[in-house]
Amino acid sequence: MWGKRLSLIAMAFCLALGTKPYIVMLAPGLALIGAYWMWKHRDARALPVDLQGQLPAIAFAGTIGIVLGGFWYGRNYLLFDNPFYPTDFELFGRLIFGTGSGGGQQGGFSLASLTGDLRMLVEQKIFDRQRYTPDLTNITGWGWFTFSCGLPTLVYGLATSASIRWLTAGFLLSFAVLFAGVNADPWNMRFTLWVPALFATCFALVVGRLQTASIRMALCGVATACMLLNFAGSLGTGFLNPSDWRRMARLPIQERSTAALGLFIGDQYQEALQMVPADEGIAYTTHGDGWVYPLYGADLSRKIRYLPLDSDEAITDTMHKHQLRYLFTGGAEARERNLVRAATEAGLLRKIGKALYVREQ
Q1: What is the CA angle 245-247-249, rounded to 5?
Q2: Half-sphere CA count of 85, side-chain side, radius 13 A
Q3: Helices (H), 92-212
Q4: Nearest to residue 294, comparing CAs of 331, 341, 245, 252?
Q5: Backbone angles phi and psi of 357, in degrees to 5
Q6: What residue ranges do the domains of the chain occupy?
Q7: Cα separations (Å) of 171 from 82, 252, 287?
Q8: What is the bridge-based pairing of β-strands 282-284 and 326-328?
């Protein structure tokens, strides 16, 4: 039983790491919760009889997690010599990966970041005074349920349950390490979307112990109302207009894509998808904040490939190497646009759309 659990834990951690590298910052709190769970089940009958016999299964699950979770880090290392691109990575003040410019996040730990993040949370973000946005700009986004239902049950659980106290300690440790490792900026609460899980767990544990069914049902009703308010707060924020949704709804299901919404760069995605034949791939130059996902198409079948730009001549050489005829430059930076312009003036590329080029040779 323990072998299976450890295998699942190893795989889950590796896959989570592949999704977001900041899972490393949450690991100390997760380890604390795990250590408490093992201590609580420390009697001889709960211990594995032959842990060594379970090592192959653990290694197999861990290997799968590493391969799947490590793909993007390997890709970044091959393209940018930095598995954590665009973020620098420092260890004990020494730059290990990156350029030293500190792009993305700080790539290290800082008590100043911890205190700055906590100050912004207490003084501003926790009140959710601004509208809900995908980046949680200057808000927590934790919503009605967390404060109306989760917080009271958390306080009660801390006073009555050792398990909740240890669970809370683990969450707080992860929270502190995370805040010490990310910039004190308006958008850092997007890294704390997991925090309401503590309040939801406490609510479920406390309400589940109540003996009176009518009280349980009433509290569940309040929780449902709060969650509906959470959902309502995410609608009509101005990020998308109702006309955008209507335009999307008018498209056939097999053609519905975020490219039709015209986010950030207008109709450039839609134009590229319409002009490039379905069986042709697309090279793209944008990175950083640029979106490339719409280029995959509504059915995610189109081949796209990042094209690092070193010189105007290297553009077409690289495109030819990867058998790509079309280049998309929407969201590209000034240096990349200048290189593409030089390649166009040299007759290597021909512009056929607002942000779309075709290779001439």
Answers
A1: 70
A2: 16
A3: 111-123, 143-145, 151-160, 162-181, 196-208
A4: 331
A5: -130, 155
A6: 1-69, 109-239, 243-359
A7: 30, 44, 33
A8: parallel
Hey, which residues does 359 pair with through a beta bridge? 349
CA-closest candidate to residue 198, choices 145, 147, 154? 154
Instruction: Kindly write down the DSSP assignment for every residue of 292-342, as one continuous string.
Output: -GGGG-TTS-S-EEE---S-HHHHHHHHHHTT--EEE-TT--HHHHHHHHH
Q: Would you state the structure tokens that stand for residue 145, as one six-digit string?
A: 């349920």
User: What angle is formed at CA 266 by the lines to CA 136 and CA 271, rounded to 5 degrees?
Assistant: 135
Tell me the sheet residues that pair with 328.
284, 356
Q: How many CA atoms lie within 13 Å of 361's alpha carbon, on the beta-carbon side?
A: 9
> Which of 184, 186, 199 lies closest to 130 in space, CA to CA?
186
Q: Taking the CA atoms of 43, 48, 50 and 51 in sequence, report the sign of the dihedral they define.
A: negative
Other C-beta atoms lying within 10 Å of the C-beta of residue 251: 12
In the block, residue with structure tokens 């995610």: 300
d(CA 278, CA 271): 13
What's the predicted TM-score (pTM) here?
A: 0.72
The answer to whether 276 and 283 are in contact (CB under 8 A) is: no
Would you state the structure tokens that stand for residue 235, as one six-digit string? Answer: 């609608």
Q: What is the pLDDT along the chain (361 residues), one digit of tens a residue?
A: 555 666 677 777 777 877 788 888 888 998 898 888 878 876 645 545 455 666 676 677 777 777 877 888 888 888 778 887 777 777 666 777 766 665 556 666 778 888 988 999 999 899 888 888 878 889 998 989 999 999 999 999 999 989 899 999 999 999 999 998 888 888 889 889 899 999 999 999 989 888 888 999 999 999 999 999 988 888 777 777 777 778 778 888 877 887 877 777 778 888 898 899 988 999 988 765 557 888 888 888 888 888 877 666 678 888 888 889 999 988 887 888 888 888 898 888 999 999 899 988 6
Direct distance between the N- and C-terminal alpha carbons of the chain, in angstroms, rounded to an integer: 61
Euclidean distance between CA atoms 359 and 148, whole angstroms:
59
206, with CB counted inside 10 A (0-12, 13-18, 19+), is: buried
